[in-house]
């Protein structure tokens, strides 16, 4: 029996088709400390709370060489020296923005941001990535590339992209009843 047949049989017998369950246990939120990445975190938190998921905050210190791509020249500072301040800032963000009851794990890496995000998601078996886009277009996007776009193309799990200019779907608590609440919608 195929899915259509089972849905037809369920409808004929009066039984509702069984709902599909959404399983979210591990949510990855890449953070570059921009207002947009903090907005992505705002989207991830209610999802994590609703599903009892853990939040993985990941910040990637871009390891692009300041020597213009000449890989043979060493960095003047070590990866630990470059990632240390970001680690402290990410831990502080987690303490300020996320409830203690929500399991939260901050990580800082050095490398190419999209590669580290995709690798982390794969290794940690992440169920969802919630990432912000900065809305670059045209020449700027062509030159800089888009971390969010690359993550969407290469991630092995669903990706929720939070855009700067789109409408919000994270609702504030409603204090008034919606006047359409008791009306039939068509």
Written description of the protein model:
The chain is α/β, with parallel strands linked by helices and 186 residues long. The protein has a single domain, classed as Rossmann fold (3-Layer(aba) Sandwich), CATH 3.40.50.620. The chain has six helices and five strands; from the N terminus they run αβαβαβαβααβ. A five-stranded parallel beta sheet has the order 3-2-1-4-5, sandwiched between helices.
Largest sheet: 5 strands, parallel
Shape call: globular
Tell me roughly what share of residues is in helical segments. 25-40%
Instruction: Give average pLDDT, whole number.
Output: 77
* Percent range for β-strand residues: 15-25%
The CATH superfamily bears the name HUPs
Spatial strand arrangement across the major sheet: 3-2-1-4-5
Indicate the structural class.
alpha/beta
- The CATH topology name reads Rossmann fold
What is the first-to-last residue Cα distance? 32 Å
The total count of helices amounts to 6
Report the uncertain regions: 1-11, 174-186
Reading the helices and strands in chain order gives HEHEHEHEHHE
CATH class: Alpha Beta
Integer tally of domains: 1
Would you spell out the secondary-structure blueprint of this structure?
Elements (H helix, E strand, L loop, with lengths): L2 H11 L12 E5 L4 H17 L2 E9 L16 H19 L6 E8 L1 H11 L4 E5 L5 H7 L2 H8 L4 E4 L24
Parallel strand pairs: 1-2, 1-4, 2-3, 4-5
């Amino acid at each position: 029996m195929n899915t259509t047949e089972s849905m037809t049989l369920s409808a004929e017998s009066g039984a509702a088709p069984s709902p599909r369950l959404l399983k979210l246990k591990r949510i990855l939120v890449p953070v570059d400390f921009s207002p947009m990445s903090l907005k992505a975190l705002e989207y991830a938190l209610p999802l994590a709370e609703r599903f009892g998921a853990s939040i993985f905050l990941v910040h990637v210190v871009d390891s692009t060489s300041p020597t213009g791509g000449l890989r043979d020249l060493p960095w003047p500072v070590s990866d630990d020296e470059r990632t240390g301040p970001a680690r402290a800032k990410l831990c502080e963000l987690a303490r300020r923005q996320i409830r203690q009851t929500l399991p939260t794990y901050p990580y800082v890496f050095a490398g190419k941001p999209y590669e580290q995000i995709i690798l982390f998601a794969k290794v940690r078996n992440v169920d969802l990535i919630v990432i912000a886009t900065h809305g670059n277009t045209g020449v700027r996007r062509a030159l800089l590339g888009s971390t969010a776009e690359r993550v969407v193309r290469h991630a092995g799990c669903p990706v929720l992209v939070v855009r700067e200019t789109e409408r919000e779907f994270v609702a504030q608590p409603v204090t008034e009843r919606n006047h359409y609440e008791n009306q039939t919608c068509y």
